[in-house]
Every structure is written in structure tokens, then in C-alpha cells.
Specification:
The complex is a heterodimer of chains A (160) and B (179). By secondary structure, chain A is mainly α. Chain A contains seven helices and no strands. The chains are: A mainly alpha (160), B alpha/beta (179).
């Protein structure tokens, strides 16, 4: 009984949770398809104030302004590419979480593959060197006899 | 010997890169607007909202556009410098009052002094988006043809003003006079 009494206020409190969340809701427009498109696009864009947040997640003032701008441009019938061009012309590539492939970003895009190839080259050279270190020496007849004997005893053990 | 030197060399290169990376301010994003035409706008003036101000009005002049707001803490730090620079008359300084309340902005100029020839009110921040503003204060140097020649992100410092702005202003004025 006492546990119920303890729990009751908590349950009642938890009923308030949706109201707390409701305050955080963004001023969505009445067009769910457009909002979905906005969310998808702004998830690929960086909020320049907070930098490690996407434009979709950020609650910074500037992010809200930019979302409004994108929303308006979408209503005006602009394509995603046109909107991204609009933003990069003003804020630079930094606003994109996925930078475009241009000469300045070649290192970013292809650098890891270059490193991978370099690593493979080093690995192959190392393995080859190691292999060259092993002297190619044929077995003497005495060694061959011992090896065969050992093989024979081990196979006998396995069958037993 | 080499097998110890190579990892050491790689390590040193890494240290140099990390040291450079640590010394850089991640908030300083290079603006793609440098050497591009300053976006046009026509906005009401802060002090006389019935009048407007446009970037076009400044054709033929070298001028500075400073983005500020009364809610912006760094702007307060920068303000005495702007007043000092405005007094020298080296270059006219115009303000873009960004996402501010008119009363707050006017009170701020009243309290701290007004370095601006005039300020334009960008209440909803649309023009600031055109200028790629993401954190006030930001300061643009715009030449006679309406091209952005320099952008300072964050507060101006005496060093930046002496080493970047003034030499460029002088150079642009010389070029303009020779034309």
C-alpha cells in the first residue's frame, strides 16, 4: 500500500512529460511531406553555431532561421541541390556533413584509400622479405626418414 | 636504425599536424564570399525606420559592414575599438543590426556610443544568411565595386585592424583614385 502511495505522485508526474516535450517541438508547418523533406535535408547539414550538431537537431537561433529559409525555398519549388548550392555559396562546404568531391577535398575522399594502398605495399614488401630470409634447404635423407616416422606415429594415434 | 627512425618521423609529422590543429579556432570557417559581390539588400535604418539603406548606396566607396546585436557579448568587447576606429575616419563603418529588438539596439547605442554612420535593421536575420553570418560580430570590408575583400569572424582586434583592414583600405583607395 505504501509503495502505491509512493508511486502515485510519480505516475502523475510522468503524465506531465508530454507537456514538457511539447514545448520543445519545432514550429512545424501544416505540410507533413515538406517537413519530412526538410528534416531529411537538414540532417545532412551542419549547424554552424554548435558545429557538432545537425541543422535538424539544433535549437540555435541561426539553425531556426536556416530551417525557415530552407522551408520557404522548398515551398518555392527549389530542388534539394539548389538549396544546398544556395547554402554552400554563403557558408561554404563546411555546412555539409558530406563534403562534395572537389580538388580541395580530394585528400579527404581519397586519402584513406591511398593510405590503404601504401599499407598493403608495405605489408607485401615485409612478407616478401621474411620469405626470402627462409633458406631453401632440401631435407637430408635422415631428416626425411624422421619426418615420415613422426607422421606415421601421429596418424596412428589419431586412428586409435 | 631505420626501423626506429621511420616511426619517429611519422610520430613527429603527426605531432606537427595535431599542434597546428589545436592552434586553430574551429569557429573560423573560411568564407566563400571573399572576392564575390556583396549580396544586395534594402533594409530600414535602425534610427529612422522610414528611411532605407542599401549596399548599392555605397557603390564607389570602400566601406566596412559590421554585424552586431545588443544580445551579443563579444560585440560589447569589440565596441570600444569600433568607436576608436570610427573616430580616425579611415573608413566609414556601417552596422547591420542582426536579429535584435529595436529598443534594445537603440539603448545599446545610447549607452555605449554609436560608431556607425548608420545601422540597418535585419530583424529576422534574412540578410545575415545572405552574408553567411553565423556568429556576431562579423566584419566585412567591401570595395568600390561592391566586392567583399575581407571578412573578420568574431571581434575585431587591434592586430587585425592594423595588419589586415587598414592596408587593404589604403590599397583599395589608391586603386580607386588611379582608376
Amino acid at each position: 500500500m505504501s509503495r502505491v502511495r509512493l508511486l502515485l505522485p510519480l505516475v502523475l508526474l510522468s503524465l506531465l512529460a508530454p507537456f514538457a516535450l511539447a514545448k520543445d517541438a519545432q514550429p512545424a508547418s501544416d505540410d507533413p511531406a515538406l517537413e519530412q523533406r526538410l528534416t531529411r535535408l537538414s540532417q545532412e547539414l551542419r549547424c554552424l553555431v554548435c558545429q557538432n550538431e545537425t541543422l535538424a537537431d539544433s535549437r540555435a537561433d541561426l539553425a531556426e532561421d536556416l530551417r525557415r529559409e530552407i522551408r520557404e525555398q522548398m515551398r518555392a519549388g527549389k530542388s534539394d541541390k539548389e538549396i544546398i548550392d544556395f547554402l554552400t555559396a554563403r557558408y561554404g562546404q563546411f555546412i555539409l556533413y558530406k563534403p562534395q568531391v572537389t580538388p580541395t577535398t580530394y585528400l579527404l575522399w581519397f586519402g584513406p584509400f591511398v593510405l590503404l594502398l601504401a599499407g598493403l605495399a608495405v605489408l607485401f614488401r615485409y612478407i616478401k622479405q621474411r620469405r626470402d630470409l627462409i633458406p631453401e634447404k632440401p631435407l637430408t635423407s635422415e631428416e626425411r626418414r624422421r619426418a615420415e616416422e613422426l607422421l606415421r606415429t601421429s596418424s596412428r594415434k589419431e586412428t586409435a | 636504425m631505420l626501423r626506429y627512425l621511420i616511426p619517429l618521423a611519422i610520430f613527429l609529422v603527426l605531432v606537427v599536424f595535431l599542434a597546428i590543429g589545436l592552434g586553430r579556432d574551429p569557429h573560423e570557417v573560411p568564407s566563400p564570399l571573399i572576392n564575390k559581390a556583396a549580396p544586395t539588400f534594402r533594409l530600414p535604418q535602425l534610427k529612422e525606420p522610414s528611411k532605407t539603406f542599401s549596399a548599392e548606396d555605397m557603390r564607389g566607396k570602400v566601406w566596412v559592414l559590421n554585424v552586431w546585436a545588443s544580445w551579443c557579448v563579444s560585440c560589447r568587447d569589440e565596441h570600444p575599438l569600433l568607436i576608436e576606429y570610427a573616430k580616425t575616419g579611415a573608413v566609414p563603418i556601417y552596422g547591420l543590426n542582426w536579429k535584435d529588438k529595436r529598443d534594445d539596439a537603440l539603448a545599446w547605442l545610447n549607452d555605449l556610443g554609436d560608431p556607425y554612420v548608420l545601422s540597418a535593421s535585419d530583424l529576422d536575420g534574412r540578410i545575415a544568411i545572405d552574408y553567411g553570418v553565423y556568429g556576431a560580430p562579423e566584419t566585412y570590408l567591401i570595395d568600390q565595386s561592391g566586392t567583399i575583400r575581407f571578412k573578420q569572424i568574431g571581434p575585431l582586434t587591434p592586430d587585425v585592424w592594423q595588419d589586415k583592414f587598414l592596408p587593404l583600405v589604403q590599397q583599395l583607395n589608391r586603386e580607386g583614385a588611379g582608376r
